[in-house]
Amino acid sequence: MQTSNAHILLVEDDLSHCTILEALINGWGYRVSVAHNGRQALEQVRAQPFDLILSDVRMAEMDGIAALKAIKSYNPAIPILIMTAYSNVESAVEAIKAGAYDYLTKPLDFDTLQLTLARALEHTSLKSENQDLKQRLRFDQQNFIGRSEPMRKLLEMIAMIAPSEATVLISGESGTGKELIARAVHANSLRKERPLVSINCAALSESLLESELFGHEKGAFTGADKRREGRFMEADQGTLFLDEIGEVSPLMQAKLLRAIQEREIQRVGSNQTLSVDVRLIAATNRDLLADVEAGRFRQDLYYRLNVVTVDSPPLRARSEDIPLLAMHFLAKFAERNRKPVKGFTPLAMDMLLKYPWPGNVRELENSVERGVILLSGDFISEKELPLSISQCVDVQPDRRCSQAIQPLEQVEKQAILAALEQTAGNKTEAAKQLGITRKTLLAKLQK
What we know:
Layout: E1 7-11, H1 15-27, E2 31-35, H2 38-47, E3 52-56, H3 64-74, E4 80-85, H4 89-97, E5 102-106, H5 110-128, H6 149-161, E6 168-171, H7 178-187, E7 196-200, H8 206-214, E8 215-216, E9 228-229, H9 231-234, E10 239-243, H10 250-262, E11 264-265, E12 274-275, E13 279-284, H11 288-293, H12 299-305, E14 308-311, H13 322-336, E15 343-344, H14 346-354, H15 360-374, E16 379-380, H16 387-390, H17 408-422, H18 427-434, H19 438-446
Parallel strand pairs: 1-2, 1-3, 3-4, 4-5, 6-13, 6-14, 7-10, 10-13, 15-16
Antiparallel strand pairs: 8-9, 11-12
Helix pairs in contact: 2-3, 13-15, 17-18, 18-19
């Protein structure tokens, strides 16, 4: 299908706005049909094929959400773009979850509209050339080891959302592989030939984060001896991954919102506005909705980020994958350390299966690496496993480990992990519970 010959159905009950859009889209080389409410749109979809639907949300007779659901039930493959006022972003999020391809806020930016139409139609063309989304998954399968139901659902979710332009929020505990999910989404998107740029928002101070994201001019601050492009510009036409988005300060939240909403940035020390085109993927181990309700996170930014949510399952929720993961890491570190390790003893594997894994896959990987390094025989036994595992073998996931005499460093580690679990990953609250500063907690976590 040549996208320039595509047939677009415009659904808009504001006659003046409809006339302007119809002329504009015709001028871009597309064929346009018009419906003035959702009911008319549904009748036209049933009467003839369309390549794309551009629909307003708020209409007097059968609004855009109801029309979207009806059209999707009749033809699930047709891409639908939703137009909404900024004050009604919640409806747009609802539309995305109901199957809309993307949404645009009014007043429309016509350049953005033209670009989004072209991408949506390209997406449709690509889908017609492929039989099954899951068959098109492109990433290192070793990064997604497991046969459990949570892992199967995760892969299906990646296959479903990757080709869209929707912003993605990945939520999950530390160590569950949120960055791997972001890479998989990018690798299967229409932007896969362009860069994926990542930044850890918790690792930088507010001023450094602003410079990293937006860039700076020469002389903007002490040490700025030359102009620097920020991560937004580096990711132009590609994908920007914002890890630990929940740690961003209120001021930076406001600046991020503007960049996402307007698709424009300004370098630190500059008044020049620069246009950027990035797909955003964010990740957090916090409960952002609770942070919104507590006033710690902007509601408008939350709705911008939470268009599509991907939950990264904790390791304890997919314990049947532990043997596969453990053997994978065993082979990896045996080769790296040039050791002919054959496997795990039955007791050691039993301990791995019973342990609650507060550090998730990352903790499992570190534990297996430690076992390989300390091993002098052929099989990793309970002796080579960390004390945190061997002393918790009989403890259920909802109970704490028994406090036998342990090295101070190990006691500290367990206390920190317990505090993070009790505060749902909120590092500030965890630091208060532990009686230390947040900076000290971050340093200990890094160690």
